[in-house]
Structure formats: C-alpha cells, structure tokens
Amino acid sequence: MPKIPVLEIFGPTIQGEGSVIGRKTMFVRTSGCDYRCSWCDSSFTWDGSAKDDIRLLEPEDIISELDALAPNKYQHVTISGGNPALIKNIGPLVETLNDRGIKTALETQGSKFQAWMTLIDDLTISPKPPSSGMKPNLPILDEVITQCVQDSLSLKVVIFDEDDYQFAKDIHNRYPSIPFYLQVGNPYLDDSVSNHTEKLLEKYEQLIDKVMNDTLNDIYVLPQLHTLLWSNKKGV
Ligand SMILES: C[S@@+](CC[C@H](N)C(=O)[O-])C[C@H]1O[C@@H](n2cnc3c(N)ncnc32)[C@H](O)[C@@H]1O
Ligand SMILES: Nc1nc2[nH]cc(C(=O)O)c2c(=O)[nH]1
Ligand code: SF4
Ligand SMILES: [Mg+2]
C-alpha cells in the first residue's frame, strides 16, 4: 500500500475555521503544496524547513497514532496540509475512519481533485485571493467543484485587503449555491507577537463592518478561532 507523507498528527483541539468551527477534531497534516502563498501559516509543509520531520505512514499507523493521542476522545478528523489533494492514496485512511464511525474534514485550495474527496464529510475549498501571490485557475476550480459531493462542500476565502474582498465576491457569484465563508487573514505568523488576540479581533471587526455595509448577504464572516486563542502556535 503506498504511504502518506505526514508532517503533523495532533489533537484533540477545536476546528478553528469555516463551516464546522468549534467542532472537536483531530488533525492530520500532510506535507507538500503546489502553491506558495505569501502569507501561508503552514509554510513548513512546503518550504523545506521541516523536511526531516516528514514521515511516510500507512493509514493504520496514522489511526494508531490518533488513538494513542486521544483514546476514545475523538469522533472527527481533519486532513490538512500543505495540499492533501496532491496525494492519490488517502482513500483507505478515510474509509477506515468512516468504518469506525469517525467523520472527516478536508482543507484544500481547489487546484486538484482526487476521487477520495467524495468520501469527506466536511470539505472546505479555499481559493486563493490576490494578496497570496497565487492566481487560481478558475476552469480547473470549476472542474474540481463539479466532482465534489455538493452537500459536503463549503468555500472559504481569506481576506487581507480590498482586492481580496473583490475576489471573494467574484468567487461567491461564480458558485452562488455553495455556503460561503470569509476568513480574516492573520499577518502575525510569528507567534511571539504581543496582544495577538486584540489585534486579530480588530481586523475581524473591520471585516464585519465592511460586510454589514455591503450587499454581500448570503455569507458567514469568521475569524480563525485557534489563532485568537493561541496565535500561530503549531500543533493546536
Ligand atoms: C494552511 S492551509 C492548508 C490547506 C490548503 N492548502 C488551503 O490553503 O486551503 C489551511 C487554511 O489556512 C488558511 N490560511 C493559511 N494562512 C493563513 C493566514 N495567514 N491567515 C488566515 N488564513 C490562513 C488557508 O487559506 C486555508 O484555508
Ligand atoms: N485548530 C485548528 N483549526 C484549523 N482549521 C484549519 C487548520 C489548518 O491548518 O488547516 C487549522 C489548524 O491548524 N488548527
Ligand atoms: S495553498 Fe494552503 S498550504 Fe499551500 S501555500 Fe497556500 S495556504 Fe499554504
Ligand atoms: Mg492552520
């Protein structure tokens, strides 16, 4: 069985983002990304700085580790990265979790599709706005979205500036029936920043004000709950 390149397994913690924010979950973080976002809060997954920590694991190894970390203390696993959608063989992991009655979530940016993505319960696609320095290929995003199970899907766009906000509106207009989340961008990636909670809440309030005074109506506006609590600390 081909193995999965894993950088982190942690939890239980709360899902800090998107449609299942607040949900108790475990995290499995894969290594490697096809993007290089300027503000990526998990750049160690692709910039080579953690290359010695990458482990090639079988689904059974991953589940044993989840069980050891949280015996009988989890019912939900979030797969993130990097971009887990680069990896063909995550299916057996999701199937084994499903067989055990454990729900799954995926964080990906919508640049790639894998068949196993149809097994995911909470699938978040997060197309990247201009401030990231990336330019999503929208015809490919259309294809990825079409192949996903629509009931499981939500869209999340990170907002740092006005251009990002306009991009988010364009994405929402392109896929009006998919639940749509705006997420406050976190510029404080060095977790030694002082008063991070205050600073992030201020940005959250600014984003709320903007949306309340706009015609963007069928929308959720969220912070990253875990960064409000713990800044950009790893493993939470
Ligand atoms: C680290 S990414 C991994 C999954 C996938 N590569 C993606 O970008 O969707 C997980 C989520 O964190 C978001 N994110 C990354 N850096 C961020 C930052 N500095 N502020 C706010 N959200 C950020 C991404 O947009 C994505 O929604
Ligand atoms: N608590 C917590 N919630 C998260 N939601 C998405 C995350 C990610 O890095 O994909 C993340 C994370 O790293 N931690
Ligand atoms: S797509 Fe996700 S993991 Fe990749 S660089 Fe961007 S935020 Fe980071
Ligand atoms: Mg994160």
From TrEMBL:
<feature type="binding site">
    <location>
        <position position="82"/>
    </location>
    <ligand>
        <name>S-adenosyl-L-methionine</name>
    </ligand>
</feature>
<keyword id="KW-0456">Lyase</keyword>
<protein>
    <recommendedName>
        <fullName>7-carboxy-7-deazaguanine synthase</fullName>
        <ecNumber>4.3.99.3</ecNumber>
    </recommendedName>
</protein>
<dbReference type="InterPro" id="IPR013785">
    <property type="entry name" value="Aldolase_TIM"/>
</dbReference>
<dbReference type="Pfam" id="PF04055">
    <property type="entry name" value="Radical_SAM"/>
</dbReference>
<keyword id="KW-0671">Queuosine biosynthesis</keyword>
<dbReference type="InterPro" id="IPR058240">
    <property type="entry name" value="rSAM_sf"/>
</dbReference>
<feature type="binding site">
    <location>
        <position position="37"/>
    </location>
    <ligand>
        <name>[4Fe-4S] cluster</name>
    </ligand>
</feature>
<feature type="binding site">
    <location>
        <position position="42"/>
    </location>
    <ligand>
        <name>Mg(2+)</name>
    </ligand>
</feature>
<keyword id="KW-0949">S-adenosyl-L-methionine</keyword>
<comment type="pathway">
    <text>Purine metabolism; 7-cyano-7-deazaguanine biosynthesis.</text>
</comment>
<feature type="binding site">
    <location>
        <begin position="39"/>
        <end position="41"/>
    </location>
    <ligand>
        <name>S-adenosyl-L-methionine</name>
    </ligand>
</feature>
<feature type="binding site">
    <location>
        <begin position="126"/>
        <end position="128"/>
    </location>
    <ligand>
        <name>S-adenosyl-L-methionine</name>
    </ligand>
</feature>
<keyword id="KW-0004">4Fe-4S</keyword>
<comment type="similarity">
    <text>Belongs to the radical SAM superfamily. 7-carboxy-7-deazaguanine synthase family.</text>
</comment>
<dbReference type="InterPro" id="IPR017742">
    <property type="entry name" value="Deazaguanine_synth"/>
</dbReference>
<feature type="binding site">
    <location>
        <position position="29"/>
    </location>
    <ligand>
        <name>substrate</name>
    </ligand>
</feature>
<keyword id="KW-0411">Iron-sulfur</keyword>
<dbReference type="InterPro" id="IPR024924">
    <property type="entry name" value="7-CO-7-deazaguanine_synth-like"/>
</dbReference>
<feature type="binding site">
    <location>
        <position position="33"/>
    </location>
    <ligand>
        <name>[4Fe-4S] cluster</name>
    </ligand>
</feature>
<feature type="binding site">
    <location>
        <position position="40"/>
    </location>
    <ligand>
        <name>[4Fe-4S] cluster</name>
    </ligand>
</feature>
<feature type="binding site">
    <location>
        <position position="80"/>
    </location>
    <ligand>
        <name>substrate</name>
    </ligand>
</feature>
<keyword id="KW-0479">Metal-binding</keyword>
<keyword id="KW-0408">Iron</keyword>
<feature type="binding site">
    <location>
        <begin position="14"/>
        <end position="16"/>
    </location>
    <ligand>
        <name>substrate</name>
    </ligand>
</feature>
<keyword id="KW-0460">Magnesium</keyword>
<comment type="subunit">
    <text>Homodimer.</text>
</comment>
<dbReference type="InterPro" id="IPR007197">
    <property type="entry name" value="rSAM"/>
</dbReference>
<feature type="domain" description="Radical SAM core">
    <location>
        <begin position="20"/>
        <end position="232"/>
    </location>
</feature>
<comment type="function">
    <text>Catalyzes the complex heterocyclic radical-mediated conversion of 6-carboxy-5,6,7,8-tetrahydropterin (CPH4) to 7-carboxy-7-deazaguanine (CDG), a step common to the biosynthetic pathways of all 7-deazapurine-containing compounds.</text>
</comment>
<dbReference type="GO" id="GO:0016829">
    <property type="term" value="F:lyase activity"/>
</dbReference>
